[in-house]
Structures are given as structure tokens and as C-alpha cells.
Design brief:
Elements lengths: L12 H5 L3 H21 L6 H33 L1 H22 L5 H8 L2 H13 L5 H18 L6 H4 L4 H19 L8 H25 L8 H29 L1 H4 L5 H13 L6 H17 L8
Helix pairs in contact: 2-11, 2-13, 3-4, 3-10, 3-11, 4-9, 4-10, 5-9, 6-9, 7-14
Length: 311
């Protein structure tokens, strides 16, 4: 009598997703695009420092029950690299987030998207300055091509609009936020070897603590949360999608393909943002949207090829 055939393996969607860096990074860009659109929409309604702090407190509390056993096991490794962990928390969560929300109180959407598109260049700059990591020709070509696509979209195909942009203090703050996140991205490969839940939960909690004094200052200055439907919906979205899920996906994507190959996915943020404007705000799609999308996608594919994996 022959043995029965083994039962077919049950597919595990989460395990599969955890090993799909390009999908993870694309979803990250989608969630961050929604964050920018929403933050601009609620500017003046939800205080930026309080929004930043509540965002990371909420994400920390969501992940803590799942991360607790990993945190206990990984604490010696985290403590041994505590200065690096504080820098990761400050750059990836405190400075980047607070400055972005604060900047969106002042800057225009066109300016913010243009500055956001410079993210891969900041990652490459920090990687070169700190670690001597140079871009491969394919990575450089991909960044240039995708940046051209971003400019095509946000300038509506009119390159002359670039000369008419007026930068204000919001633009400077947003650029500082992108610079801080570039440092976070370039430092991520030097993180201690831990479970990803240990890393993300620790940095979220530390980032929230660093933001707490600024939130208290904002409250004492008279800028308080108004607990209405808009505030509630905003907090639910930013805690779940651009915070908890996006950072888990982004960190995993960097772990799988490295910061330089992951950086061009920054360019998908304005692409998704433009698509949201078409779908949600009733803007009409035009030829420059299609050209821009194709250029961005081509740049991401070129820069992320396995053959260009120097970073």
C-alpha cells in the first residue's frame, strides 16, 4: 500500500508579501502619498506637532503586543547600538515627520512634491559621504529618468513653470525633512541585527518620546486637537497606513534590496499623489500624466535591477 500523497502546502500571503520588495516599496509610496494629501487638507485644523506625536504613539501601541517578545529577546542588541537607534528614531520619525507636517502649513503642493522627489539624491549623498557608497550607472540613470517623470507630472509638462516657483520657509522645512529621512535611509543597513518588529517598535516609541516636548509646547501655545470627524479620520489613517504599515514595508524593502535601489521608489509618491488628485479631486488626466508615469516607472525599473545592486 502506497503512502498517501503529502497535502499541498497552504500558501501564506503574509510570508509571500514579506519577500516582495518592489510591491512593499510601492505600497509604502502609496500610503505616504495619501499622508501628504491628507496633511495638506487638514493643515490649520490639526496641530502638526501633536499630529506627529499621536501618530507614533498610536503606531507604537498597535505594534507593541506583537513586538514585545522580540523586544525582550533583542534588547541586548538594541542597547549595544543605542546611539544609532536614537539617531534612527530622530531622523526617521521625529525630525522627518514633524518638519513635514509643519512645512505643509506653509508650502504649496507643487513645491512639496518637487522637494519630495529629491529624496533619492539625499539618500545617495548620505551614502557617499558616510560610507563611500557610489551609485552605479544604472542607479544614476534610473534616478535621473524618474526625476524627469516627476517633474513632468508636477509641472504639467511646462518646464518654464520651474523658474516661476517661489520657495518659502515651508519649502526649507520640507527640504530639511527629506534630508533627515535620507540620513535614516542610508543608516538603515547599519542597524543591529534584530527582528523587524523590534526595530520598528523601538524607533517608533523613541521617536514619540522625542516629539513629546514639542507637542506639550504646542498645547501650551494654544494649538489643541479638535476631536471631530475629520480629526478622527485623519488620526486613524496616519496611524495605520503611512506609519505602521508603510514603515514596516519600507524597512523590509531596504533590508531586501538596499537603500540605493530602494530610493527611486520615492518618486512613486508624487505619481500616486497625482493619481489621487485625478480620482478624488476630479482633475482631468492629460498627456503629461501618462508621459510622467511612464518615465517614473522606467526609472524605478532601471535603478532597481538586480545587476545594479551596489547599494
Amino acid at each position: 500500500m502506497t503512502d498517501p500523497a503529502p497535502a499541498p502546502a497552504v500558501p501564506d500571503p503574509l510570508r509571500w508579501l514579506n519577500n516582495q520588495p518592489y510591491l512593499l516599496l510601492s505600497l509604502t509610496a502609496l500610503f505616504w502619498a495619501g499622508n501628504i494629501v491628507l496633511a495638506r487638507y487638514v493643515a490649520g485644523h490639526v496641530p502638526p506637532m501633536t499630529l506627529s506625536c499621536v501618530r507614533w504613539v498610536g503606531a507604537f501601541l498597535m505594534l507593541l503586543p506583537f513586538a514585545w517578545p522580540h523586544l525582550l529577546r533583542d534588547w541586548p542588541a538594541l542597547r549595544a547600538r543605542l546611539p544609532l537607534m536614537v539617531v534612527l528614531s530622530a531622523t526617521g520619525f521625529t525630525l522627518n515627520n514633524a518638519l513635514s507636517y509643519w512645512a505643509l502649513q506653509y508650502t504649496e503642493a507643487l513645491n512639496a512634491l518637487l522637494i519630495q522627489s529629491s529624496g533619492p539624491l539625499f539618500v545617495a549623498l548620505w551614502s557617499l559621504v558616510l560610507f563611500g557608497v557610489r551609485l552605479t550607472p544604472a542607479q544614476l540613470a534610473g534616478i535621473v529618468i524618474s526625476l524627469a517623470g516627476v517633474l513632468t507630472i508636477i509641472l504639467h509638462g511646462d518646464l518654464a513653470a520651474l523658474a516661476r516657483i517661489q520657495f518659502n520657509r515651508g519649502d526649507v522645512m520640507f527640504a530639511s525633512a527629506v534630508l533627515a529621512f535620507g540620513l535614516y535611509s542610508s543608516l538603515m543597513p547599519r542597524r543591529p541585527v534584530t527582528h523587524q518588529l523590534s526595530l520598528i517598535t523601538f524607533t517608533m516609541g523613541c521617536g514619540a518620546l522625542l516629539l513629546l516636548p514639542f507637542s506639550i509646547w504646542e498645547y501650551l501655545a494654544g494649538y489643541t486637537l479638535k476631536f471631530d470627524a475629520l480629526t478622527t479620520a485623519t488620526l486613524i489613517y496616519v496611524i495605520i497606513f503611512p506609519s505602521t504599515l508603510a514603515y514596516l514595508f519600507f524597512n523590509r524593502g531596504i533590508a531586501l534590496i538596499g537603500p540605493n535601489r530602494a530610493a527611486p521608489f520615492f518618486h512613486l509618491v508624487p505619481v500616486f499623489g497625482s493619481a489621487m488628485a485625478i480620482l478624488l479631486l476630479g482633475e482631468q488626466p492629460r498627456l503629461f500624466h501618462l508621459i510622467g508615469y511612464l518615465l517614473v516607472l522606467a526609472g524605478v525599473v532601471i535603478a532597481s535591477r538586480q545587476a545594479s545592486a551596489a547599494g
